[in-house]
Write a structure and sequence with these properties.
single chain, 452 residues, alpha+beta, FAD/NAD(P)-binding domain, protoporphyrinogen ix oxidase, domain 3, 7-stranded mixed β-sheet, 19 strands
């Protein structure tokens, strides 16, 4: 296993449970990838994901196997409340048909436009349509600008004009293809969704861990028998009967022979390793963009904000011209995130929208975040606590042509039996998506090793 993020660790765990001897090579000083938690001055700060959604029974099973189910904490009921910035004001996303009719977030014309949606024809099944084009066609430009644009920024830090709807949001594409309408698909599919053990991201419960999301990756790393942190894979060489993996770690250079290799790495890192023996797959991997994202944790004394933090947080449409993508109300969502008397916020900046901002200095990012909080939330000009983490390459973008790139990766897997790719550029970017993909990859690799 090359790569010790959530995908690699979960895949290695699945293989180890199946009786396989698994070695995980992780270049960083600790396993976990972008999942990382630190307690600083009494604040619990997440470097990456702040929570996850319980979208698949695989998650609960994994927590039970690792013995950490009791450390799980569910989000506060206020998490249902989500806000969109509109002309400087936070508007609640409507949670019911009545609320939708009453909301000022969308104009009367945009609401009436939805009546046309069931009568709009399907796109060709194989068409690679952008998220923006799909939403404009089915729901109208206003829904794109005021709802989908900020949502895409919140999930991918991405640009809906560039993301492929078939790749990034396959369920939307499937609804259209099956029912000819998103609205009819939601209505007609309600009974089937209620029976399905897999839950949609809209209905799944949100949770974290008492001591942060690193609880999950730390538990996986502890239970795996062979995890080498600080060990960078230098090359993977296919040969008769398996693969030769060369690495460099704290103990110097190493060589490992394996019947199967799983590359659980970001696409750009996997591209470097595969270029000598799978150039077409490497080119496809190298074409997957990863924009920079900055994550700023900031805290203010309770009572000093002009607005109550009564929800999950807020997202910012591009049309608002702001310097942040959105803010999570971290201490509202989960207990124990801040000392008594303080509110902790987690704010994201950069992405495909403003990559240069995420590449600025910590002071520049902190200044931008505090200025936006002052204007949007009525916060004091200076936070009581501020910590900035930058990810130069954050979230893989499922841009137009992504499925063709994945097809090149699948071709390499067929041509080189025993080689597997498992990372969040494939199958979804959320923690639940990664766990589901890891379980599938572990099953495939296990079947290969059994000779099935």
């Amino acid at each position: 296993m090359v790569g010790g993020g959530i995908s690699g660790l979960a895949c290695a765990w699945g293989l180890q449970k199946g009786g396989r001897d698994v070695l995980v090579l992780e270049a960083a000083s600790r396993a976990g990838g972008t999942i990382g938690t630190a307690r600083t001055d009494g604040y619990l700060v997440e470097a990456g994901p702040n929570s996850t959604l319980d979208t698949t029974p695989l998650i609960g099973a994994l927590l039970d196997q690792l013995g950490i189910a009791g450390l799980r904490i569910d989000a506060a009921p206020a998490a249902r409340n989500r806000y969109i910035l509109q002309q400087g004001q936070l508007r609640a996303l409507p949670l019911s048909p009545a609320a939708f009719l009453a909301t000022p977030l969308f104009s009367a014309g945009a609401k009436l436009r939805l009546l046309r949606e069931p009568f709009i024809g399907r796109s060709p099944a194989a068409a690679d349509e952008s998220v923006a084009a799909f939403v404009r066609r089915r729901l109208g430009a206003e829904f794109l600008d005021r709802a989908i644009n900020p949502f895409v920024a919140g999930v991918y830090a991405g640009d809906p004009e560039r993301l492929s709807v078939r790749a990034a949001f396959p369920k939307l594409h499937q609804l259209e293809q099956k029912h000819g309408s998103l609205i009819l698909g939601q209505l007609l599919g309600a009974r089937a969704r209620a029976r399905d053990p897999e839950k949609s991201k809209q209905s799944a419960a949100m949770f974290a861990f008492r001591d942060g999301m690193q609880t999950l990756t730390d538990a996986l790393a502890r239970r795996l028998r062979r995890v080498e942190a600080g060990a960078e894979a230098l090359s993977v060489q296919p040969g008769d009967g398996g693969f030769l993996v060369r690495s460099r770690g704290p103990g110097g250079l190493g060589e490992f022979h394996a019947r199967a290799v799983v590359l659980a790495l970001p696409a750009y890192a996997a591209a470097t390793l595969t270029a000598p023996f799978a150039p077409r797959a490497a080119a496809a991997l190298g074409a997957i963009p990863y924009p920079p994202v900055a994550v700023a944790a900031s805290a203010y004394r309770k009572g000093t904000l002009a607005r109550e933090l009564d929800g999950f947080g807020f997202l910012v449409p591009q049309r608002e011209g702001r310097r942040i993508l959105g803010t999570i109300f971290s201490s509202t969502l989960f207990a124990g995130r801040a000392p008594d008397g303080f509110d902790l916020l987690t704010t994201f900046a950069g992405g495909m929208r403003q990559p240069a901002l995420a590449q600025g200095s910590d002071a520049e990012i902190a200044e931008a975040v505090q200025a936006e909080h002052a204007d949007i939330l009525g916060a004091p000009p200076h936070a009581e606590f501020m910590q900035v983490r930058r990810w130069p390459r954050a979230i893989p973008q499922y841009t137009l042509g992504h499925l063709a790139r994945i097809a090149q990766i699948e071709e390499a897997e067929r041509d080189l039996p025993g080689l597997f790719f498992c990372a969040n550029y494939r199958g979804g970017v959320s923690i639940g998506d990664c766990i589901r993909s890891a379980a599938g990859t572990a099953e495939q690799a296990g079947a290969f090793l059994r000779g099935a």
